[in-house]
Design a protein that fits this description.
This protein is mainly β. The chain contains 1 helix and 9 strands; from the N terminus they run ββββββαβββ. It has one helix at about 155-160; strands at about 45-55, 65-70, 95-100, 105-110, 125-130, 135-140, 160-165, 165, 170-180. A 5-stranded mixed beta sheet has the order 3-2-5-6-7, with no helix packed on it. The chain has a 4-stranded mixed beta sheet with strand order 4-1-9-8, with no helix packed on it. A hairpin with a 2-residue loop joins β5 and β6. The radius of gyration is 16 Å and the shape is globular.
Length: about 180
């Protein structure tokens, strides 16, 4: 799985939209973290360099959009008052951030590879916003970490939400997601 739309498009053809997915029970509360780097100080777990591009259904980039993202730490814990998972939350991990797309609709972020919790495979929640309007709420899954196992979606929909992890140096990986709104 590469999560890349490929092939020539005839004029008027549209890209399939990225499937909507649930926001989850742990949408962040409190002050926003207006940063695309959730790691404070030196990393002490596997780093994920995550990038993407936001396009409309005609394949045109969506610049100046906000990519709002949140996920569990590598041990599967969210920093949210309703998450009762045992253990201390990491002070050197922000759990929630945001990245703005550039004129080409591209964004990037640096975080940890999320952990699984319960029966949920590792994933990152996200919202794409433009002019204060939420255009999409979804999740991204990782093929090497179980993909979207247990999700009752068509294989085509799951493929558009699943990315591969690639080595990116010592104790870090990278992944890329194309998002169509």
């Amino acid at each position: 799985m590469t999560n890349a739309w490929s092939g020539a498009r005839a004029e008027g053809d549209v890209l399939p939209r990225t499937p909507r997915d649930f926001e989850g029970p742990y949408y962040p509360v409190g002050d926003r973290n207006p940063t695309n780097d959730l790691i404070v100080g030196d990393p002490h777990d596997r780093v994920l360099n995550f990038s993407g591009q936001v396009l409309n259904t005609q394949g045109e980039p969506l610049g100046n959009a906000l990519f709002d993202f949140w996920h569990a730490d590598p041990l599967g814990r969210y920093k949210h008052p309703r998450d009762r998972s045992p253990g201390e939350r990491w002070d050197d991990f922000l759990y929630w951030g945001e990245a703005m797309t550039d004129a080409d609709g591209r964004f990037g972020l640096r975080t940890y590879v999320p952990g699984d919790y319960g029966s949920r495979p590792p994933h990152i929640h996200f919202k794409v916003r433009s002019a204060e309007k939420v255009l999409l709420t979804s999740q991204v899954y990782f093929a090497e970490l179980g993909g979207a196992r247990g999700r009752s979606r068509s294989s085509d929909a799951v493929e558009r939400q699943t990315v591969n992890l690639h080595g990116d140096g010592d104790n870090s990986v990278k992944a890329n997601l194309q998002i169509v709104v």
